[in-house]
């Protein structure tokens, strides 16, 4: 297993504007797939997020309600599969590309999905990636309603799990003020990086 964490300082990605969501996903997953190359036909990528790219959705909504011209890139990039498609082209990933939205623990949901995918004999590895933004007024209200906590900074955590790796137990699902509902993935990534350094 290998892991990578990306924050708002992730390099920009051509075609993705205004939000750090897609550049962070790209950076974290790119580092995992570059560090451990493999057969893209036997690779799956699963992205999980509670709120998704709320920054892009909110910007598009504000432009629309103000009667301003809507940037067509905002529609495309607000769908999380867009950045997974970009990664799949670059790394020839033809296995499943999935996006999950969960109100439960992101780490547990992603690990359960990876475990299920690895039951397919046609797959050798799965990259899981959790991503959340600090949020907007709208998402802050949604987090409160759900009893959830946003991260203190924009954050993406990717973990590449090979078929032969011992399958990790998900860490405790208690959100933290620093990492929000990505706390479990951050802890798991730290464990993995500690064993590989």
Give a brief rundown of this model.
This protein has helices at residues 21-35, 54-65, 72-77, 81-91, 106-117, 137-146, 183-196, and strands at 2-7, 43-49, 97-101, 125-132, 155-162.
What fraction of the residues are assigned to beta strands by DSSP? 15-25%
Q: Roughly how much helix do the residues carry, as a percent range?
A: 40-55%
* Dominant shape: globular
Radius of gyration over alpha carbons?
16 Å
SSE sequence, one letter per element: EHEHHHEHEHEH
Cα(first) to Cα(last) distance is 12 Å
Given helix and strand content, the structural type is alpha/beta
Number of strands: 5
Runs in which pLDDT lies below 50 for 5 or more consecutive residues are none
Largest sheet: 5 strands, mixed
Quaternary state of the chains: single chain
Number of helices: 7
Report mean pLDDT, rounded to a whole number.
84
Strand order of the largest sheet: 1-5-4-2-3
């Amino acid at each position: 297993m290998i892991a990578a964490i990306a924050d708002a300082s992730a390099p920009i990605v051509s075609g993705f504007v205004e939000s750090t969501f897609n550049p962070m996903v790209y950076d974290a997953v790119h580092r995992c797939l570059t560090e451990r190359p493999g057969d893209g036909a036997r690779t799956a990528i699963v992205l999980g997020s509670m709120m998704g790219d709320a920054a892009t959705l909110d910007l598009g909504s504000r432009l629309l309600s103000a009667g301003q011209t809507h940037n067509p890139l905002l529609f495309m990039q607000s769908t999380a599969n867009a950045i997974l498609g970009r990664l799949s082209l670059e790394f020839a990933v033809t296995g499943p590309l999935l996006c999950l939205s969960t109100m439960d623990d992101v780490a547990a949901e992603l690990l359960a999905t990876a475990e299920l995918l690895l039951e397919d004999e046609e797959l050798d590895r799965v990259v899981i990636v959790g991503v959340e933004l600090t949020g907007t007024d709208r998402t802050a209200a949604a987090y409160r309603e759900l009893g959830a906590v946003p991260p203190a900074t924009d954050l993406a955590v990717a973990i590449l799990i090979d078929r032969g790796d011992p399958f990790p137990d998900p860490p405790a699902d208690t959100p933290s003020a620093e990492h929000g509902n990505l706390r479990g993935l951050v802890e798991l990534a730290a464990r993995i990086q500690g064993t590989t350094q």
